[in-house]
Specification:
By secondary structure, this protein is α+β, with helices and mostly antiparallel strands. It contains 5 helices and 12 strands. The longest helix has 15 residues.
Length: 220
């Protein structure tokens, strides 16, 4: 797993106007570090540093070391505000962590063996990714960079739900505690669209009322 470290400065000049000047004049962005029963810290980060870190998928599911005011603190990314039209990060929120307290993090899903999937290889089906990441709860030391989902044995019509994911010890999915209605489909293998259309046409023909001889007689 990659290591991420960001250098920051304490920010005393606050407010929307100060944040705009920060982004415009110094190519820096405002950020906040909070949690773990400590006071929030208003920070300033170099845009180029966090922009580069964001190029790695692991940055969003990894413990980050933030150096500020001579101290190093560990945190995870909780939120990033991006510019609606430009490739710019506008603000970052970081949550402090404690190694003995569980955290809830969105972790990416990596799908394995799509090319050799049974339903694709033999049935010409299509793989549908209903989810590309999932929210998990675990201790910081157990935080995975991603979760693998092997779909090689999936046939046409098969689906893997959240409850069917293979998780390492210490990981759980909080939403499953809310009941079966929250056990959403993660990935499924669907029949080719043309096949589905033919099946629907055949079913429609079977449901249509048969034309009687008397009906035909009136046409002679």
């Amino acid at each position: 797993m990659a290591d991420f470290e960001l250098n920051a400065e304490l920010r005393t000049d606050k407010g929307k106007g100060a944040s705009r000047r920060l982004r415009r004049n110094a190519d820096m962005i405002p950020a906040i570090l909070y949690g773990a029963g400590q006071d929030p810290l208003s920070l300033t980060l170099a845009h180029k540093d966090i922009h580069k870190a964001c190029q790695s998928e692991a940055f969003f599911s990894h413990i980050i070391t933030i150096n500020a005011d001579g101290n190093s603190q560990q945190a995870i990314v909780k939120d990033l505000q991006r510019h609606p039209a430009k490739d710019r990060i506008m603000h970052a929120d970081f949550l402090r962590i404690q190694m003995d307290q569980a955290i809830t993090v969105e972790v990416p899903l990596h799908f394995l063996n799509e090319d050799s999937c049974l339903g694709v290889r033999q049935g010409g089906g299509n793989v549908s990714h209903n989810m590309t990441s999932i929210e998990i709860s675990c201790l910081p030391g157990d935080l995975p960079e991603y979760i693998e989902v092997d779909i090689e044995e999936m046939d046409l019509g098969d689906a893997i739900h959240m409850s069917g994911l293979k998780l390492a010890d210490g990981l759980s999915i909080p939403s499953l505690q809310q009941g079966a209605d929250h056990d959403h489909v993660v990935v499924s293998v669907n029949a080719p669209k043309r096949t589905e259309e033919l099946d629907e046409d055949a079913a429609s023909a079977e449901d249509a009322p048969a034309q009687s001889d008397g009906d035909n007689a009136g046409d002679e």
